[in-house]
Amino acid sequence: MTGIGGAQAAERIRYGIAQAPITLDPRYATDATSERVCRLLYRKLVDFDAQYQPVPQLAEWQQVSPAHYRFTLREEGRTFHDGTRLTAADVKATYDYVLDPAHVSPHRGSLAMITRIEAPDATHVDFYLARPDPLLPGRLVLGILPQRLIASEHRFDRAPLGSGPLRFRAWPDSSHLVLERVSDGAQVEFFAVPNPTVRALKLVRGEIDLLQGDMPPELFGWLESREELNVQRVRGDSVVYVGFNAQDNVTGRRQVRAAIAHAIDRQAIIQHLFRGAAQPTVSVLTAAHWAGPGDLYGLAYDPARAKELLRELGYGPDHPLKIVYTTSSDPFRIRLATIIQSQLKEVGIDVDLRSYDWGTFYGDIKVGRFQMYTLSWVGLKLPDIFRYAFHSAAVPPDGANRGRFADSRVDRLIEAAESASSRAEQHAHYRALQTLLLQELPYIPLWSEDVTAVTRHGLHGYAPAADGDYDALVDAHWL
Questions:
Q1: Are 188 and 275 found together in one domain?
Q2: pLDDT tens for residues 246-256?
Q3: 222-259: b or e for each residue (b if 16 or more CB lie within 10 Å)?
């Protein structure tokens, strides 16, 4: 392929992303970019198909008893990037590390039912549980690390070593990460370019070859008009939501959260800001998910009801409700937050909007330093997100209940769903749980944004995925 400024090297694909990964250690990765890059660097026991059902990646499994699963490693994907063999001991060491509370892995909470792990030989791994858990195979999605490097406290966050389709090559600075495809040696370089306009211009000028998401719809429209570019769009399954601090004197009140939910005109935002490239949602799981909300409805846009709820709480023109709303410094996210700020203003809520660089913003969210914020849940496959995000025992670092929400009814439904003996019984509990969450509103699910990818002509084989993963980089190539 020949691009602007000269010949494009066939073995190099340059990917423009909005945020750099925070860590390349799958035991600690929780932000979207880190998790997506880790999928390329590491293989895991289990992955998911298009219907959100668990399928073997490194291993097949059998349920020996209600509280005992045995995993048998397959042959494919069992060579670490340093040439050593991936064995059952590596699987055991990876999960033992996460389960050790001294290591404060954010993934420990979702694996807390595991009481012990045994590796009787190089091929088999046995997981013993404190209670039956039909979701267990789908929980085992951590990238597997070499036991010998775990023991030596190797810095996987900056020098990862896995057995995935791409290997680590260099991280010369915080905005530039270089990987290499194992199959053919092609280099895949990630360039973090936070400003979406600058990212789009770099694509047009041939300084990057590919970008995906994290861009205002009008910029995608402009890129679509360029003859040298290809634009692909699929319906996404990531969920944008408003999060609240449940321990705050203001946002800890359900009536306040309900007033905010009634004040946000989601349809207007989807129509005018997203130009229709988003779908309203009522849960962290999409309607297509087997454990999803089905035909449940969220609180409708009703500014009159919002004002009424605020009056009942003693707020009004002479005593407006004041809330601090934090977001990232991404220009589009600031625009979105400004629109929500304006809609809340119309019902009598004064919003102090504050934006921070991604690292500061995400750091504040993780430690609970906020009243209200917007973020996305990305690529959710298992309904264990409910324990991870809403169970009272999942407060960081033991999960992602960043708002410190606590409700014994929610806890009981989560636990009942996890111990259910059939898929139908599980679904009934998850349906009741999502109904209760819509009543209590520890968060407000807003919409799922479409996933749009733009590539330069000549780059083939890259197709966007509903969850926004970068997996198609395994097959992307120049012609």
A1: no
A2: 999 999 999 99
A3: ebeeeeebbeeeeebbbbbbbbbbbebebbbbeebbbb
Q: What pairs with residue 316 in β-bridges?
A: 319
CATH (domain of 61): 3.90.76.10
Query: Domain check: are 341 and 402 in the same one?
Result: yes
Strand blocks (E) in 89-224: 114-118, 124-129, 166-173, 176-181, 187-192, 210-212
Q: Each residue of 61-115: pLDDT tens digit?
A: 999 998 999 999 999 999 999 999 999 999 999 999 999 999 999 899 889 899 9
Alpha helix (H) ranges present in 187-248? Answer: 196-204, 217-224
Coil, strand, or helix at residue 452? strand
> How many structural domains compose the chain?
3
Contact 417, 411 (CB under 8 A): no
DSSP label at 347?
Answer: T
- C-beta separation of 137 from 46 below 8 A: yes
Q: What's the CA gap between 274 and 450, in Å, rounded?
A: 9
**Pair (286, 379) in one structural domain:** yes
- CATH code, domain carrying 465: 3.40.190.10
Rounded Cα gap, residues 82 and 70, in angstroms: 27
207 and 328: one domain?
no
Q: Do residue 74 and residue 184 come from a single domain?
A: no
- Domain end, chosen from 151, 184, 208, is at 151
Asked whether residue 166 is domain-assigned, the answer is no
Instruction: State the residue for tokens 């929500």.
Output: 340
- Which of 356, 359, 354, 360 shows the shortest CA–CA distance to 341? 354
Two structure tokens written together for 330: 């991404």
Whether residues 224 and 310 share a domain: the answer is no
Structure pTM?
A: 0.78
Last residue of some domain: 151, 183, 207? Answer: 151
All residues at 6 or more sequence positions from 178 whose CB lies less than 8 Å from its CB, including other chains = 169, 170, 171, 172, 187, 188, 189, 190
> What six digits make up the tokens of 342?
């304006």
Is residue 158 situated within a structural domain?
no
User: Which residue range(s) make up the domain with 16?
Assistant: 2-20+174-235+454-478
Residue-level length of the chain: 479
Alpha-carbon separation of residue 310 from 97, 259, 313 (angstroms) = 48, 7, 5
385 contacts 358 by C-beta, under 8 angstroms: no
* Same domain flag for 251 and 320: yes
CA distance 146 to 94: 8
How far is 102 from 18, CA to CA, in rounded Å? Answer: 33
The CA distance from 310 to 231, in Å, is 45
Contacts of 77 (CB under 8 A, 6+ apart): 43, 57, 58, 86, 163, 164
